[in-house]
Amino acid sequence: MDLEKTIKNLELRGFGVRHFASGAEAADYICGAINGCSVGIGGSGTVDALGLYEKLSENNTVYWHWKVPGAETQAKAATADIYLSSANAISEDGEILNIDGTGNRISSLVFGHRKVYIIAGTNKICPDFDSALHRARNVAAVRNCRRFDVDTPCKLDGKCHDCRHPQRICHALEVLWGPMSRMETEVILIDEELGM
Predict the structure, then answer these.
(1) Which of 43, 71, 120, 145 is most solvent-facing, going by the fewest CB within 10 Å?
(2) pTM, 2 dp
(3) Residues whose CB falls within 8 Å of the CB of residue 189, separated by 6 or more in sequence, listed in order
């Protein structure tokens, strides 16, 4: 994993980038940058591990369906000022990949917010697009599937089958080659193994 190359290429693509040695430092930075806003959060083990819902709730109105389940919470998250998510994989060339089942996360990463933060441990960085796609499908998606009460082939043997299973949770792949127009996007990289 070439962190310097990844940061350089993310910046060349137009993303803002911050790099932190620890999750605690990253959480302090994010909480210092977001104050008095509405904040939406997509499904993210990384965001959960950093305790950002609780910390941001002190000075912001935060919507996260993991903490307050329901369609209303997801709808409010979709129109929040700020949106937080992670990535399933990031290539050293600066491509950010996410797989989604309901579309709430990937839609918010491309439209509707004043600013988006993509928060990821450096364990998500892959040498190139093909290895990033492999990680998104065969590591992140499989781990995510194992959180649910489904009986998909990947849950059983740990690899993506591009199945047509009725309980499939992977319905869309999003690749960000740069920030979407009119929406500032900042990538927060943390020197820890975080998320799925």
Answers:
(1) 71
(2) 0.92
(3) 3, 6, 7, 17, 18, 19, 20, 120, 121, 122, 125
